[in-house]
TrEMBL record:
Keywords: Activator, RNA-binding, Transcription, Transcription regulation
InterPro entries tied to this protein: Regulatory_HutP (IPR015111), Regulatory_HutP_sf (IPR036482)
GO terms, molecular function: RNA binding
Protein name stated in the entry: Hut operon positive regulatory protein
One Pfam short name: HutP
Role played: Antiterminator that binds to cis-acting regulatory sequences on the mRNA in the presence of histidine, thereby suppressing transcription termination and activating the hut operon for histidine utilization.
Top-level lineage group: Bacteria
Family: Belongs to the HutP family.
Length: 139
C-alpha cells in the first residue's frame, strides 16, 4: 500500500472526481475505483446553504453508508460528518445567504476518508462555482 501522503492525495482526488461527475460518469467511476479497492459514493444536493448544512452532512453520511464506504459506527459516521463539515466551511464565505446546487463526493481507501463538495452558488444564471474538501483518518 502507498504511504499516507500518497493515499490521502489519491482519496481526495477520487472524492473531487465523484463530486464533479454526472450520473453516467459516476457509475463508471464507481466501477473503476472498485477495481482499485477504493470505496466511493456521491449524492446530489440543492437548497438554501444556511438552512441546509445539517441536511448536507446527513446526506453525505447516508450515501457513504448506502455505498459501503463506511460502517454504521459512531467513529466512521463522525469521520464523514467532520470531513463534510470541513468542506462546507471552506465554501461558507461564498455561499452564505445563497442557494447552492451540486454534488457531494465521498471516497475511502483504508483509513483515509475524503469528502468533496462541488456547488454552484448564486441566483438564476449568475452562479459562482466552489469546491470544498475535507479529510479524516479512521482506524
Amino acid at each position: 500500500m502507498a504511504n499516507n501522503e500518497e493515499t490521502s492525495k489519491k482519496v481526495a482526488t477520487a472524492a473531487i472526481k465523484m463530486a464533479l461527475s454526472d450520473r453516467d460518469e459516476e457509475n463508471l467511476l464507481k466501477a473503476a475505483y472498485k477495481e482499485q479497492k477504493m470505496k466511493v459514493a456521491a449524492v446530489d444536493f440543492g437548497g438554501n446553504f444556511n438552512s441546509s448544512v445539517k441536511t448536507m452532512i446527513e446526506r453525505a453520511i447516508v450515501a457513504a453508508k448506502r455505498e459501503g464506504v463506511i460502517k454504521e459506527t459512531h467513529t466512521e459516521q463522525g469521520a464523514v460528518a467532520g470531513a463534510t463539515r470541513e468542506a462546507l466551511i471552506q465554501i461558507n464565505p461564498k455561499a452564505i445567504g445563497f442557494n447552492v446546487g451540486g454534488k457531494i463526493g465521498v471516497a475511502r481507501e483504508g483509513d483515509h476518508i475524503s469528502v468533496a463538495v462541488f456547488f454552484a452558488i448564486g441566483l438564476l444564471h449568475l452562479n459562482e462555482m466552489a469546491i470544498g474538501l475535507g479529510h479524516r483518518a479512521v482506524t
